[in-house]
Amino acid sequence: MNVSKKRREARAKRKTSSRKRLHGTAERPRVSVYRSHKNIYAQVVDDDEGSTLLSAKGDKIEQVEVPKGVSGKCAVAYGVGRAVADLAKSKGINAMIFDRSGYLYHGRVAALARGLRDGGIEV
What we know:
- The chain is 37% helix and 19% strand.
- It is built from three helices and four strands.
């Protein structure tokens, strides 16, 4: 078995074990993160309804002012977090459950969460 298949299976196992504990509602939906090599995606989900409330993608957002020390792909992730926060605020959502989808809370995933918090969302 090659290394990339092992990593993919390990991440899938971490994702399913964390999803057992996370459940989004209409008052506090779940924000799910997907990280590819080139991009980062965030999706806000109401698990009671089984529907996606809103989503954002790294290449579809405009430039935002990022904190000092954040650059490159982390700056894009921070912008996605701010975009999701702005869209959520317009829909009246003030708090979310953060689903990191088996990724380490480090780098781009942490930058996205920081963007959500800086946008006024309780994560």
